[in-house]
Amino acid sequence: MNRQKAFVTFSLLLFILLLFLLSIPQSALANDVAQLPTVAIPTVTSTPSGPMAIVVPGSETQINLRSGPGMFYDKVGVLLVGQKVPAKGKSPGGAWILVEYPGVQGGQAWVFANYVRIDPPRELPVVEIPPTPTPQVTNTIDPTLAAKFIVTVAPTRLPTYTPPPPLNVPTFQSQGSIAPAGIPMGLIILGCAALGVFFGLISFVRSR
């Protein structure tokens, strides 16, 4: 009987001790754990491997990313000055760089090579160019509308040029200085004057 009573008492005490341990906060138990050193522990951060394309400062604060190596490809995003992205390759001529750009189809985009520099400098592999995008709408011209703005000038016939007749310049001969017989006119006048004086003297003498 005493043994049974002692066993019940021991079990009751063990149960109370267990409840007490479970009621103790975890923060109190953590104090018993050995303290970690207070010195700064360097953290290891993973960086993308391979060359990086860094946007260089220029006239623009941001540059466009396109779906292919050309201005006629669709714009899919932008990069800011100083931003760096992994470089994957280049176009056959080297004018465009293929970079990693999550969020677009395929996770890659193209950037103009003059806007970025490769760090560390290395030769990038040549990447196959994607197909050229086809325009969804083909621009057509309405011939009826275009005909309204076309002005047709009727040809005009110029008059036929007729040269004028040759100019006939008359020539005048000097008349009056030479008598018809070839005697100078002055000599004839002097002769007439002399005859007039002669006949005048005769008339004067006869009248006396």
TrEMBL record:
Residues 50-120 form the SH3b domain. PROSITE patterns: SH3B. It comes from the Bacteria. The chain crosses the membrane at residues 183-205. InterPro entries: SH3-like_bac-type. Residues 1-30 form the signal peptide. Keywords: Membrane, Signal, Transmembrane, Transmembrane helix. This is SH3b domain-containing protein.
